[in-house]
Design a protein that fits this description.
The protein folds into 2 domains: 2-67; 88-212, no CATH class. Strand 3 and strand 4 form a beta hairpin. Helix content is 44%, strand content 10%. Helix 1 runs antiparallel to helix 2 (45-66). 16% of the residues are buried. Strands 1-2-4-3 form a 4-stranded mixed sheet. With 214 residues, the chain is an alpha+beta fold. The protein contains 7 helices and 4 strands.
């Protein structure tokens, strides 16, 4: 129930249930084995294990086939990625290549939006725990202290590149030339820092690429 409270039931929200699920599965298997030993003692133990394993295998194969996991695995070149879209890598390939070619491994980047896969695929890290900024705009959760923390992290460890993905859930452009740009007063220090220390170098797809001024 807690995994669904956000109203956004993404698959990775349920990873925390895996340890509990493993324990419950082990307990269930033990109960089944005990039942078979007491009520069906005439059935050999190997056959019992085979039956239990068969149920698990059938369910797992249904998961692989129904969710097309094997095809997604192949499309990702043998790596199950963080995103469900099979075209995610191809769609962000130019952005990822640009980051790799213009930053070092120990450089930070900041993705303005929620495209966390860019960090993973470019092998770069964010300067802040708010690597995606939805929490800063979440009513009932966000507050001035969190926004100050985010701004302090970015100013203290300036990212070499900022990628503005124009995420509609944030809808705050980093382009200072945008006449319709609006932002909360709490974000003003961050916006001013970006305006002062970064320049929009290029546009890749729907992403504005900002480089730190030398």
């Amino acid at each position: 129930m807690l995994a669904n409270l956000s109203g956004n039931p993404y698959g990775h929200y349920y990873l925390s249930l895996i340890p509990v699920g493993c324990l419950l599965s082990a307990f269930t298997i033990k109960l089944l084995l005990d039942v078979f030993r007491t009520r069906f003692s005439w059935i050999p133990l190997p056959l019992t294990l085979l039956v239990v394993t068969a149920f698990t295998y059938v369910h797992y194969m249904d998961y692989l086939i129904h969710d097309n996991i094997l095809q997604r695995y192949a499309n990702w070149g043998g790596h199950i990625g963080c995103c469900d879209d099979n075209n995610y890598v191809r769609g962000n390939e130019d952005v990822i290549n640009h980051i790799r070619e213009n930053t070092d491994e120990d450089d930070h980047i900041l993705v303005w939006g929620a495209e966390g896969g860019i960090y993973f695929l470019s092998d770069r890290t964010a300067p802040t725990r708010f690597f995606y900024q939805y929490p800063l705009f979440r009513q009932g959760y966000a507050n001035n202290d969190l926004i100050k923390e985010f701004t302090s992290d970015v100013v203290g460890s300036p990212p070499a590149i900022i990628i503005d993905t124009h995420d509609p859930k944030i809808s705050i452009s980093l382009n200072m030339a945008d006449p319709e740009r609006r932002y909360p007063e709490q974000l003003q220090p961050f916006i001013e820092f970006v305006d002062t220390h970064y320049e929009r170098l290029k546009i890749i797809g729907s992403n504005d690429i900002y480089h730190h001024k030398k």
